[in-house]
Amino acid sequence: QVQLVESGGGLVQPGGSLRLSCAASGFTLDNYDIGWFRQAPGKEREGVSCITSNGNRRDADSVKGRFTISRDNAKKTVYLQMVSLKPEDTAVYYCAAVRSHDSYCWVVPGPYHYWGQGTQVTVSS
């Protein structure tokens, strides 16, 4: 059974940092691209970052220079390190997986087949 479980969310002050984790089970993570997405109340789900099976990365313009996606296939976990957080980063964050096909990954939700349940990130003073 394919499962993705996010963790690491919470309440943080503006300018603070958080590291989200996405633990994968039920499939071979090495063969999959992973994306991080977020959805704020009343807004559509948007792409944040993605990483291919061989480590190529893409980031949304809104998080470039602040968020870093990484993966540890041995631990079957993908991370999202977030620094310099802003109130507008407040959202439920989701990780998602799709089988790798190319040397680039998608920072849009459509191509992804498997989704986690999300973890809340709140940036507020």
Report on this model:
The chain is mainly β. The protein is 0% helix and 49% strand. The protein contains no helices and eleven strands. The mean pLDDT is 96.
Largest sheet, described in full?
7 strands, mixed
Radius of gyration: 13 Å
Structural class: mainly beta
- Arithmetic mean pLDDT: 96
**Residues in helices, as a percent range:** under 10%
Shape: globular
Name the poorly predicted regions: none
Alpha plus pi helix count: 0
Q: What order do the helices and strands follow?
A: EEEEEEEEEEE
Report the portion of residues in β strands. Answer: over 45%
Care to count the β-strands? 11
The termini sit apart by 40 Å
Keywords:
mainly beta
How is this structure best summarized?
The protein has strands at residues 3-7, 10-12, 18-25, 32-39, 46-51, 57-59, 67-72, 77-82, 91-99, 114-115, 119-123.
List the helices and strands and how they pair.
Layout: E1 3-7, E2 10-12, E3 18-25, E4 32-39, E5 46-51, E6 57-59, E7 67-72, E8 77-82, E9 91-99, E10 114-115, E11 119-123
Parallel strand pairs: 2-11
Antiparallel strand pairs: 1-3, 3-8, 4-5, 4-9, 5-6, 7-8, 9-10, 9-11
